[in-house]
Amino acid sequence: ATPTAVMVGTGVGASQGVLIKGGQALERTHKVNCIVFDKTGTLTIGKPVIVNTRLLKSMVLREFYELVAASEVNSEHPLAKAVVEYAKKFRQEEESPVWPEAQDFESITGQGVRAVVRNKEVLVGNKRLMLERNVAISIDAEEILAETEGLAQTGILVAIDKELIGILAISDPLKPGAREVISILKSMKVKSIVVTGDNWGTANSIAKEVGIDTVIAEAKPEHKAEKVKELQAEGNIVAMVGDGINDSPALVAADVGMAIGAGTDIAIEAADIVLMKSNLEDVITAIDLSRTTFFRIR
Ligand code: ADP
Ligand code: MG
């Protein structure tokens, strides 16, 4: 491609909200044969909501959610925001409820939170958090979790003083058109993979819904980057699409890192291409643009 063609290509991209940081990024994109997608906020809308509360022990819901919200209000995680938002339902008489005071707050990356509220130790998070903190998970709880994950929802466990009290089912639906994008990519001979910090059950269900066969779940940020490097070592030209701080190492490692526009500054910084409109379809726009620039106009 001539420098003019590259300029035209990046210009057309920009006019459609696909910001390509330089000619090399545009060139590498037409060779991509494999795309690693982050789940939360990339394939899914990224605005999780609580759809169900299952209590394993009898407890007044209002009190239960006060303890949970008091712990989660200190966390920046999208799941924590969803929990606090939902907890307000039980305090509707107040415009902005003041949660009980939380002491010794701890945020455990990839697992959840811990705090002491009203002299009780509260743990909110995934199974790994409970296992590491010696909270027993009953067969009943396992069944509820399996059910939740089968519905492509994430189950968040709540333990009070080391006793499992409840499970919150959280739904974060697929973005509209996600399934179609994956199917079009397949027809373009581009393989899709999903990688997420969420659990295997939920990840598998979401992948099935969207039409992706290869799944990596319970991945830490460094695992996401490792997976990208592994695919490269097998001879693939790999793009990574993500939105979170967690995705930055993988965005950097990929041949083409694509940040979904509404993502974090860190992800946008790490990426070669920014999809300003947060549309998954723009992954195809970027590949099309690169193929047009580097195949036809020579
Ligand atoms: P991702 O953003 O890729 O889904 P994370 O590594 O941020 O993954 O989190 C992995 C899992 O850890 C979440 O799916 C959830 O089960 C649990 N988790 C993390 N932070 C919290 C939190 N603040 N509250 C409840 N659960 C959490
Ligand atoms: Mg994400």
Automatic annotation (TrEMBL):
Its chief place of residence is membrane
Q: Name one GO molecular function term.
A: metal ion binding
Localization, UniProt: Membrane
Naming one, the record's GO cellular component terms include:
membrane
Q: Which GO terms of type biological process are on file?
A: copper ion transport
From which domain of life does this come? Eukaryota
Q: Which UniProt keywords apply?
A: ATP-binding, Copper, Copper transport, Ion transport, Membrane, Metal-binding, Nucleotide-binding, Repeat, Translocase, Transmembrane, Transmembrane helix, Transport
Family membership, please give it. Belongs to the cation transport ATPase (P-type) (TC 3.A.3) family. Type IB subfamily.
Q: What is this protein's name?
A: Copper-transporting ATPase HMA5
